[in-house]
UniProtKB/TrEMBL annotation:
DUF1731 domain ranges (all copies): 243-289
Location of the NAD-dependent epimerase/dehydratase domain: 3-215
Leader peptide range in chain numbering: none
Similarity comment: Belongs to the NAD(P)-dependent epimerase/dehydratase family. SDR39U1 subfamily.
Name of the protein in question: Epimerase
InterPro entries referenced in this protein's UniProt entry, alphabetically: DUF1731 (IPR013549), Epimerase_deHydtase (IPR001509), NAD(P)-bd_dom_sf (IPR036291), SDR39U1 (IPR010099)
Pfam families: DUF1731, Epimerase
Superkingdom assignment: Bacteria
Lineage: Bacteria, Pseudomonadati, Pseudomonadota, Gammaproteobacteria, Oceanospirillales
Transmembrane segments: none
C-alpha cells in the first residue's frame, strides 16, 4: 500500500513507521523540511511537494499535532494547537490530488471535556471546554474526507505509554521521588500501551469494518493515584509527594485541567469489533515500558 504519514518523527509516528516498513508498505512522510533521521526507505514530502504529487495514496495516517500539555493555554498557544491539528488536516486534504481510500486520524479523550463522575463511551455527550472544542474541530476536519467516499477512522487516544511520550517527561520527577497523587488523585487516568495503538491503527488500515470513531484506551480503568503508585513502583520509587490543585492552577491556568481532571473512558466500539488489547493491565504495561528503557 501507499501510505502517507503525518507526524512521522513523533513518539507514535516513529514506532508506527518501523512496523509499517516491516510490512513492505510504500511510505511517504509529510515533513516541514527534509530530515536526515528518517529511514531512507521513506519518501519525504513537504506540503508544497504533496500538492504536485500526482499519485493516489491508499491510506493517510494523521498523527501530527503539537503537544497540548507542553505550555499554558494562552490565546497564542491555543491558536498554534488548532493550526497544528485542524489547519494542517485541512491543508493536507486540499493538497492531495486524489482522495485517499482510507484516512486514520488521531483525536484524544479530551473530546469528552472536564469530567470525573460519568463513564464515557463513543456516544456519551461531552462536557464543554477548550480540549473538547479542539478535538471536535480536529475530528470534523478528518471526517470531511468522507465526502469523497473515503473510509474515515478517528481514534480518541488516552495517555500513550511507551519509551518516550508522556512517561519520558514524568520519569525524572518520579526518579527523584517527587511523583505522587495530583489534586487528590481520584480523577481517572485513561491510558493505552503504544503497541496497542500500533495494532489498532494497523487493524483499521486492513479491516473495512472499522469506520467512525473509536476510544483507543485500555479497558482497565485506573485513577491517577493508582497510576502514580504503580509507575513509581515500576522504577523502584515511592509515590509520596502529592501535588495540590491550587499549585497546578497557578502554574498552568486552564491547561491544569488536563492533570487535575480525568474522565473514565471505555473502548466500547473496539471491544464490539473484537479488538484484543495486548496490555489491559497497567502494571504489566508499565513494567514492559521500563524493561524497554532499561534493556532488561
Amino acid at each position: 500500500m501507499k501510505i502517507l504519514l503525518s507526524g512521522a518523527t513523533g513518539f507514535i509516528g516513529r514506532s508506527l513507521l518501523t512496523s509499517l516498513l516491516k510490512q513492505n508498505h510504500q511510505i511517504y512522510a509529510l515533513v516541514r523540511a527534509i530530515k536526515s533521521d528518517i529511514d531512507d526507505q521513506v519518501q519525504q514530502l513537504t506540503l508544497d511537494q504533496l500538492a504536485t504529487f500526482n499519485e493516489k495514496m491508499d491510506v493517510f495516517v494523521n498523527l501530527a499535532g503539537e503537544n497540548i500539555a507542553s505550555q499554558p493555554w494562552t490565546a497564542k498557544r491555543k491558536a498554534a494547537l488548532y493550526e497544528s491539528r485542524v489547519g494542517l488536516t485541512k491543508n493536507i486534504q486540499s493538497a492531495l490530488t486524489h482522495p485517499p481510500s482510507v484516512v486514520i486520524s488521531m483525536s484524544a479523550v479530551g473530546f469528552y471535556g472536564v469530567a470525573r463522575d460519568d463513564i464515557f463511551d463513543e456516544n456519551t455527550p461531552p462536557k464543554p471546554g477548550f480540549a473538547h472544542d479542539l478535538c471536535e474541530a480536529w475530528e470534523s476536519a478528518a471526517n470531511s474526507f468522507a465526502i469523497n467516499d473515503t473510509r474515515v477512522v478517528v481514534f480518541r487516544l488516552g495517555v500513550v505509554l511507551g519509551k518516550g511520550g508522556a512517561l519520558a517527561k514524568m520519569r525524572l520527577p518520579f526518579k527523584l521521588g517527587l511523583g505522587g497523587p495530583i489534586a487528590g488523585g481520584k480523577q481517572w487516568f485513561p491510558w493505552v500501551h503504544i503497541r496497542d495503538v500500533e495494532r489498532a491503527i494497523m487493524t483499521a488500515i486492513q479491516e473495512n469494518s472499522y469506520n467512525g470513531t473509536f476510544n483507543l484506551v485500555s479497558p482497565a480503568s485506573v485513577t491517577q493515584k493508582e497510576f502514580a503508585s504503580l509507575y513509581a513502583s515500576s522504577i523502584n520509587r515511592a509515590a509520596l509527594v502529592p501535588t495540590p490543585r491550587w499549585l497546578l492552577n497557578s502554574l498552568f491556568g486552564e491547561m491544569a485541567s488536563l492533570l487535575t481532571e480525568g474522565a473514565r473512558v471505555i473502548p466500547k466500539r473496539l471491544e464490539e469489533h473484537g479488538f484484543r488489547f495486548e496490555f489491559s493491565n497497567i502494571k504489566s504495561a508499565l513494567d514492559d515500558v521500563e524493561q524497554n528503557i532499561s534493556g532488561r
